[in-house]
Every structure is written in C-alpha cells, then in structure tokens.
C-alpha cells in the first residue's frame, strides 16, 4: 500500500501541527475563512481527533470582508469545537481606515498591525498560517517554521535550516514562530482535497449572478452599501466567482459559470492567469510580498 | 525552442471529462527531488523549463517574466527561465540563488516537489537541507565543462544524505552540437568517480534546459540516445515511497491524546513498517510490551496502517508512554544508547565548541548532547580525511558524541527518522548542525546504574538539609571568593554541611591539565559542575567561586542538577572597579599583554540575564552581601 500524494501531504501537515502543539506554549491558528484556511482547519481536526484542536482560531478582521465570509467564520469555529478570537485594530477602526480612501495603508493597519496586536495581546508564541510555497516567488523559499523577532520582523537571511522532518521550535522570550503546515500543497491539491473531503467553503468560490463594477481592470463585487459608486456607475449583474477571497473592495472576481467543485477545478486548470492576479496587493513591485513579509505581514 | 507544445498535461481530459481527470489526479504518487549543479550549469533554467513545459506558468507570470527577461535577463530577447525561480530580491540582483527554494509541478503520473539548491561552495548547508527530504538527485553538468569539483561535491553530499537515485543530467548539449563523444566521455569520467564514493548506479541523460531537448520530449538532435527523457525517468523511477515498509514497525510518539478520562491515545507518524490491530508492540526505552487496541483516525478506525501515515494508537494495557518514546514491533525493537559516532555537517557561522552542551533533536526526542573534538574533517573537494579541532560553517566531520540520557536510535543508513538529528545552540536556539548517526559506541543498556539503597535523599535527610550549589560568578577581583567564604562560615555556624570549591583547590589538582583557552575554560567548568553534582548527591551544600564567564556553561551546570538546586549569584562589579582594585595584579599583566584570554580584557564576560541573586558590590559590604544571601536562601 503506497500513499497517494494527497495522503502524503495530509500526513505531513498533521505531523507539523502535532509538533507545534507538543513544543509550543500558546499556539493559535490564523483563520482567514478562505479555501486554504478551510483545508488547514480540516487537517487540524484530523490531527487531534478525538480531541478538538487544542488551540483557538484567530481572525484578524478588517471589517471589509465579504458578508458570506463572516457567516461561515462563526459556523466553522463552532463545528470544530474551537474558540474563535476576532481582532479588529482599534486604531484603524477609530480612524475609519478603508480600502477606498487609504490604499496600501488599509492593508498595513488592519492586517499587518492588527495581526501583531492580536499576537502580542494574547501572548501567542506560534501562529499557524495557511500560506503555500507555490503562491508566490518569495514564499517558495519560506521555511515551514518561520521565525519572527520580538518586533515580528522576518529576516530572510537568518532563517533556520530545516532538515528531514525535524523542526526546531525553540525560541527566546518575545520571539514567535509562524508555522505553515500547508507549505507543500499546491492550489490544485487544495481544491482536490476540498472536493474529496467535502469541506465547506464560502459560496463566493462558486459562480452566481452578483452585482459588480469594473475598476482598474479588476472586476469588483458590490457586497454592501459602503461601496462608493462613481458618478454614472451602476452595478452590473454578472455571473462571477472568486479564486481568492480577501477584502471585497480589493478582490477581483472572474467571470465564470463554474458552479461545482469539479467545474471550478476544471476552470482553474484551463485558466491562464495565476490566482494572485486577482489581488491588488501583489502588483506594487516584483518584490512586494517579500517586503511586506519583512514588515510582519503574514 | 524545440517544444512549446503541451506534452504531459492532459488538456483533453481536463476539458472533456474533469471527473476522470480528478480521479486520475487523486491516485498520483509524489516524488521529491533535488537539482544540484554549479553556478552556471543551468539549474534554474532547467527548473523554469520544467514548470513552463508542464504549464505551471500562467500568462500573467509569463508577461512579468518576459518583461523581466528584457530588463535583467541573460538570454537577449528569449525568455530567461532562471528568473522564474530566483525568488528573493537580493539574489535576483546578484543573479544567483542563495537558499533552498521549493517548486511544484505535476504530470499525468506524479506530483513533483523540486528543491532548488545553490552550487556555491559556501552553501553546502543549503544543499544538505534540500537533500534531506529528496528521493532523487539530478546532478547537472555543463557539457562544455564536464565533471568538475562541484559535481563531485554535490554527488558526495547526495550520497551522504542517503539519496539512492542519482541522475547525471549532461546539460547544454546544444552548445556542443549534440556530440555523442562529449556525452560518453563525461559519463565515463563520472562513473569512475561515482564508484569510488559508493554510488552503485546512476542514470545519465543528455539534455538542454534552454532548448528543451530530452526534458519532456525525446530530442531529434540526439538520435544516438535511446534512454528515457528526464520527465519519463522522473515519472517512472521506482522510489517506493514506502521504501521503509519492509522494516519493522516504528512510530515516534509526538503527542499524547487525552480528550477525556476514557480515551488515551498516542499520536505520531509511522516512520517504518506497518501495524495491525492486535499486533504485539514494545514501548522503547521503557521496554514494556502491550498490544494495539485501536488505530484511530477521524475517518474511522483502521485495521492496519503503514509507513508515512499520521495516526493515533490506543493500547490494550494501561502502560506509560509519552512524547519521545518510540512504539515498535515487540520482537524487533530499536536499540538505545548514549554514545555514538556520527557524521556532522556544520551549518552555523559560530564553529563547533567541543565538549559544550547542545540540544539534540532526533525524531521526537530532545536531549542534551556533548560533542567530542572531530576525529577528522572530510575535505569536501578531495574527500580526504583532514585533521580538525573544530568544525566551521559548511564543514563536514566525523565526531563522537554522548547524550545526557539514552536515546532510541537506528543508524542513519537504516532509518533517516531515527538516525538523522539536528543540533541546537542552547543560547541562540539556532539550528547549528545536521548529523547522521553511523553507529553507537556502546549500548546504554549494558551500563547499569548502581541502584544504591543509600541514595541522595538519604544523604540529605541524614544531614537535615537540602543539597544546593551556590554558584558565584563575576569578574576577576569582584569579591566572589571573599563573599563565598563569608557565607560558608555562616552556614557552618548553623550546623550545615558545606564545601567551597574555588580556583585554589581545583586548578592545582583536578584541573591542572587545563589552560585558559575557551575550550579549556569550558572543560574546567564542566568538571567543576560534575564534582559539585556528586557533592550534592552526597547531601552537601556546595559553594563555587569561579569567573565562569560563559552563559552556556553556567546553563550546562544548571541543567545537570535537579530543579531549584542551582543558585546563580552574580557578584556584580564594574570592570573599571575590579581593575582598579586589581588585588592580584592580574589586570595589569593582562593589559601589558602578558596574560592571554583574560576575562574582561581580551575575553568576554557574559553577565547572567536572570540570576537568582545579584550582589552589587558598589552598594554592599562583604557582610551585607552575605546577609542578603543568607536571608534570600535560608531565611536566616
């Protein structure tokens, strides 16, 4: 009996999660409600069964996620029997930081700063993230255990070598580790796993008629009344779906009719653009993700 | 470019019958391989080509790539595939890869994970890292250059890390007019070398990463070559992900699963063999036997499980088992030992300090280990055995080491999981070395500790005291001995049994063979620590007065003793004050260059970060200092 590649990936991810729980003091799982988070949470349930995963879920909220995401967030945590911590950066909230008026500052304050605040406030020493190495060039060199200084900075030149399946989780007080148990999965693997394991995901991944406007080459969905329409701009109903989910004003949709998982996978395989293309954040510069990571973005 | 046509992605199946495609994809196996070559052998180009040919490059990435190629590429107007895989900004500018990058692509039959590792000599560390998880190694050779020193080095490392499948990819065949003689000569040359280092077999393929020859499609330019293309070989090579399945069952316990009083399971990933419900198993090192009651997963209980699976076992009997233990087939359990010979690859800027304690992680076990000076270092280019006193970054050496308690192990050749380990610096927590156990030097279970009836508790009870080590540390001339003497007098007056260890009674006898180099200083403190420990076993309160400048050594002694028995007392005197006093005239000599390695002058003093007691000698007299210590430790 030889394991398939998905079985190998799942077993590896379970191994990583158990190592963290055995060797850290106060771990947390970052949960973004996207498909990668959904797959990661599913693996976590398997890793510790029959116990519930022995750590809480943390959602660093920007208040600008899609409505459907908020709905699934509560349900997923309850189904897993896990505590859900929602953190919103109070400064960003007070200043009314939003993606329409504040551009890059929106991501910086809500996500980067918000994440640091939440980790510090609860004293989490390890945070699981659902990032994959196939997402982006600088991720390809990321370790599974990624060390952050007490100021949450990532030093790309100063990461520990990882050999075999031996992860060194020792750290000084104040330092923390971001652990990426899904590092070796690809986008196709994630979809295939969601399909095989019947994992519940946000309906926005499936095509449906939705109100949209076109801005700067991105197809944006008008998810609520906060969306400021330009003069003469009327939302158009289009059959769309999302390949990745983030803040709705920053996440581009694709026109699609794929309404089932096999159809989504089919479309993904036949498509000619990468999944991050729908994210405004990556277009800044070739090395933008690396810069953001050094500053503490996940 | 020879073949931009799709070759191994089944487009037709995807568009016509996605369910059939998904079913096929679901049964794919996985191959992890590493590519190694010198800086200009075209590694990144080859990987870029594999991704491109398997359509893992999307249009938007391709657009970026084309723009980047014009801006900083080295291929004129053509696409520079290397830019696809050179990830971090710094190295993109330098045009070389400087770390391990993992890449993914799939064909109809397999999913592949490629570790891309650099060819520079100083980056042995990265290649070893990439090789540790690889089933196969692609060794790239530039057809114009032939087998180089680097080729030998990469092959040696791949072999050292236990990779059994070696592919010799003779690249840039387009630049030698696809000449068979060139290829044959390189293969013959490599064969001689490979045999010397113990590589029994390898597969040689003539390719061009740039032009795509023999990557996915058989090249029309090499009709003299009848073997597989690179992709065909990677797809079909039998690496049996369950290579370890013929071995007896092993499961290093990661975590004890106790959701409630009725369930007690032991979670881990099977590192070898298979297990069935009802199988007789042994817990190592305790040696207790029991039977498997259930194999628990969220998808339902299993009847059997095999190597690679992450599972949870329950036992028929309630016996002790915890993280670090290994669950094994009862009639073929792994051995335990505490002294070994290993091959070490040093991975840190700070060299090995022989006899200093490091954390050693092997499987799920974490112990303290002491490394002896290397027996020899291996000259990575010549493969000669060289004399060495230490190991520096990227050095490979053979050493013996001992652990503070026996560990469950197997030689690396039999088990990567129970034979491969990392060393961790106790102060910085960095991973400083990778090691592979060659064999144990003696079996720990042959050493029987004398289970004395009169044990340390009995000694302490008779003396009516709690054994302690009061460890005074501070600069020369800070007043350690004076204060320790004063404290000992007061303890004596209280009827306590004490002993004071200081330079006078240790340096002249026990440690008279030691000088003042860093290595000797470490050994000095180690011996003092061991003596102090024996004395606490005898029930004594031990006072020590040594500069003991390094945190790691003080930590080592602390770790030798039961919790709460090591009291670190920092006699804190500023250097200027100690030098001003200069009771023994040593600072003057050191300043004059007559004393080498003098703490505070040309050797560092690492002040304790959180000592149990800190004595500020500027603010306290000797009597006040002794009062303070007596009050804090003995409430007296």
Q: What structural keywords apply?
A:
heterodimer, A: 298 residues, alpha/beta, Rossmann fold, 2 domains, 6-stranded mixed β-sheet, 4-stranded antiparallel β-sheet, 9 helices, 10 strands, globular, B: 636 residues, Elongation Factor Tu (Ef-tu), domain 3, 4 domains, 7-stranded antiparallel β-sheet, 19 helices
CATH class of the largest domain in chain A: Alpha Beta
- As residue ranges, the low-confidence spans of chain A are 280-287
Biggest interface found: A-B, 67 and 82 residues
CATH fold-level topology of the largest domain in chain A: Rossmann fold
Helix and strand sequence of chain A = HEHEHEHHHEEEHEEEEHH
| Low-confidence runs of at least 5 consecutive residues of chain B | 1-9, 87-97, 446-452
Q: Looking at this structure, what is the CATH superfamily of the largest domain in chain A?
A: HUPs
Shape of chain A: globular
What oligomeric state best describes the polypeptide chains here? heterodimer
Q: Write down the domain tally of chain A.
A: 2
Shape by Cα distribution of chain B? globular
Commentary on this structure:
The complex is a heterodimer of chains A (298) and B (636). With 298 residues, chain A is an alpha/beta fold. Chain A has 2 domains: 195 residues, 3-Layer(aba) Sandwich (Rossmann fold), CATH 3.40.50.620; 80 residues, no CATH class. In chain A, 35% of the residues lie in helices and 15% in strands. In chain A, the strands form 2 sheets. In chain A, strands 3-2-1-4-6-5 form a 6-stranded mixed sheet, sandwiched between helices. In chain A, strands 8-7-9-10 form a 4-stranded antiparallel sheet, with no helix packed on it. In chain A, a hairpin with a 2-residue loop joins strand 7 and strand 8. In chain A, helix 1 packs across helix 2 and helix 7 packs antiparallel against helix 8. Chain A is globular, with a radius of gyration of 19 Å. Chain B has 636 residues and is of the alpha/beta class. Chain B folds into 4 domains: 226 residues, Rossmann fold (3-Layer(aba) Sandwich), CATH 3.40.50.300; 87 residues, Beta Barrel (Elongation Factor Tu (Ef-tu), domain 3), CATH 2.40.30; 109 residues, Translation factors (Elongation Factor Tu (Ef-tu), domain 3); 179 residues, 3-Layer(aba) Sandwich (Rossmann fold). Chain B is 29% helix and 27% strand. Chain B has 19 helices and 28 strands. In chain B, helix 8 crosses helix 9. Chain B is globular, with a radius of gyration of 31 Å. The N terminus of chain B is likely disordered. At the A-B interface, helix 1, helix 2, helix 7 and helix 8 of A face helix 1, helix 2, helix 4, helix 6 and strand 2 of B.
């Amino acid at each position: 009996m030889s394991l398939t590649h998905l079985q190998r990936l799942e077993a590896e991810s379970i191994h990583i999660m158990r190592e963290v729980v055995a060797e850290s003091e106060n771990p947390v799982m970052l949960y973004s409600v996207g498909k990668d988070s959904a797959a990661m949470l599913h693996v976590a349930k398997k890793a510790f069964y029959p116990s519930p995963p022995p750590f809480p879920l943390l959602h660093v909220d920007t208040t600008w996620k899609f409505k459907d995401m908020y709905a699934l967030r509560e349900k997923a945590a309850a189904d897993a029997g896990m505590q859900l911590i929602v953190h919103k950066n109070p400064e960003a909230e007070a200043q009314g930081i939003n993606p329409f008026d504040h551009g890059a500052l929106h991501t910086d304050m809500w996500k980067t700063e918000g994440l640091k605040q939440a980790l510090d406030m609860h004293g989490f020493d390890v945070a699981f993230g659902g990032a994959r190495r196939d997402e982006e060039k600088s991720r390809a060199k990321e370790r599974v255990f990624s060390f952050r200084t007490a100021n949450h900075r990532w030093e790309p030149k100063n990461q520990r070598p990882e050999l075999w399946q031996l992860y060194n989780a020792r750290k000084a007080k104040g330092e923390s580790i971001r652990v990426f148990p899904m590092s070796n999965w690809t986008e196709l693997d994630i979809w295939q796993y969601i399909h095989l394991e019947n994992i519940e995901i946000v309906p926005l991944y499936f095509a449906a008629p939705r109100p949209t406007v076109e801005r700067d080459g991105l197809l944006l969905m008008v998810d609520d009344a906060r969306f400021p329409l330009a003069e003469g701009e009327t939302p158009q109903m289009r059959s769309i779906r999302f390949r990745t989910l983030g803040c709705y004003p920053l996440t581009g949709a694709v026109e699609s009719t794929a309404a089932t998982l096999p159809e989504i996978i089919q479309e993904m395989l036949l498509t000619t653009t990468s999944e991050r293309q729908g994210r405004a954040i990556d277009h800044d510069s070739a090395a933008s993700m690396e810069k953001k990571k050094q500053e503490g973005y996940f | 470019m020879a073949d931009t046509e799709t070759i191994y992605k089944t487009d037709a199946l995807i568009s016509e019958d996605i369910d059939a495609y998904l079913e096929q994809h679901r049964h794919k196996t996985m191959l992890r391989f590493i590519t190694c070559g010198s800086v200009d052998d075209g590694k990144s180009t080859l990987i870029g080509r594999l991704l491109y040919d398997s359509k893992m490059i999307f249009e938007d990435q391709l657009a970026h790539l084309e723009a980047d190629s014009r801006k900083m590429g080295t291929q004129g107007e053509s696409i520079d595939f290397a830019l696809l895989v050179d990830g971090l900004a710094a190295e993109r500018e330098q045009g070389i890869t400087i770390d391990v990058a993992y890449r993914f692509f799939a064909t109809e039959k397999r999913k592949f994970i490629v570790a891309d590792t650099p060819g520079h000599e100083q980056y042995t560390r990265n290649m070893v890292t990439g090789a540790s998880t690889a089933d196969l190694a692609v060794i790239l050779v530039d057809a114009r250059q032939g087998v180089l020193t680097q080729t030998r080095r990469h092959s040696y490392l791949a072999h050292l890390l236990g990779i059994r499948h070696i592919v010799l990819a003779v690249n840039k065949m387009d630049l030698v007019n696809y000449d068979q003689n060139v290829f044959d000569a390189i293969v013959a040359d490599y064969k001689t070398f490979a045999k010397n280092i113990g590589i029994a077999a390898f597969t040689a393929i003539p390719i061009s990463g740039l032009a795509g020859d023999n990557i996915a499609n058989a090249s029309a330019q090499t009709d003299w070559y009848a073997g597989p293309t690179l992709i065909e070989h990677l797809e079909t090579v039998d690496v049996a992900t369950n290579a370890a399945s013929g071995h007896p069952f092993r499961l290093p316990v990661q975590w004890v699963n106790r959701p409630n009083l009725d369930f007690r399971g032991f979670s881990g990933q099977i590192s070898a063999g298979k297990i069935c419900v009802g199988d007789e198993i042994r817990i190592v090192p305790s040696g207790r036997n029991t039977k498997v009651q259930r194999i628990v997963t969220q998808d339902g209980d299993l009847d059997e499980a095999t190597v690679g699976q992450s599972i949870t076992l329950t036992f028929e009997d309630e016996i002790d088992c915890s993280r670090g233990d290994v669950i094994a087939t009862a009639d073929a359990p792994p051995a335990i030992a505490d002294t070994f010979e290993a091959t070490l690859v040093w991975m840190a800027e700070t060299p090995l300090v022989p006899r200093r304690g490091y954390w050693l992680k092997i499987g799920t076990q974490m112990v303290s280990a002491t490394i002896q000076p290397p027996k020899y270092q291996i000259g990575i280019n010549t493969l000669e055995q060289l004399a060495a006193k230490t190991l520096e970054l990227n050095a490979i050496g053979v050493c013996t080491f001992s652990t503070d308690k026996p560990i469950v192990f197997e030689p690396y050749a039999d088990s990567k999981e129970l034979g491969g380990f990392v060393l961790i610096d106790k102060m910085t927590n960095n991973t400083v070395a990778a090691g592979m156990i060659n064999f144990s030097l003696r079996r720990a279970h042959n050493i029987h500790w004398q289970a004395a009836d009169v044990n340390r508790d009995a000694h302490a009870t008779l003396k009516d005291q709690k054994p302690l080590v009061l460890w005074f540390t501070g600069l020369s001339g800070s007043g350690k001995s004076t204060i320790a003497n004063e404290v000992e007098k007061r303890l004596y007056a209280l009827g306590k049994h004490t002993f004071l260890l200081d330079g006078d009674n240790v340096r002249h006898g026990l440690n008279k063979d030691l000088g003042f180099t860093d290595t000797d200083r470490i050994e000095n403190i180690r011996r003092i620590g061991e003596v102090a420990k024996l004395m606490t076993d005898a029930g004594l309160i031990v006072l020590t007065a040594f500069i003991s400048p390094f945190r790691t050594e003080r930590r080592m002694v602390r770790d030798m003793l039961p919790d709460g028995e090591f009291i670190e007392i920092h006699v804190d005197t500023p250097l200027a004050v100690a030098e001003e006093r200069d009771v023994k005239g040593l600072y003057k000599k050191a300043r004059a260059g007559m004393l080498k390695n003098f703490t505070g002058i040309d050797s560092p003093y690492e002040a304790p970060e959180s000592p149990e007691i800190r004595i500020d000698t500027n603010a306290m007299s000797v009597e006040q200092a002794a009062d303070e210590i007596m009050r804090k430790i003995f409430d007296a």
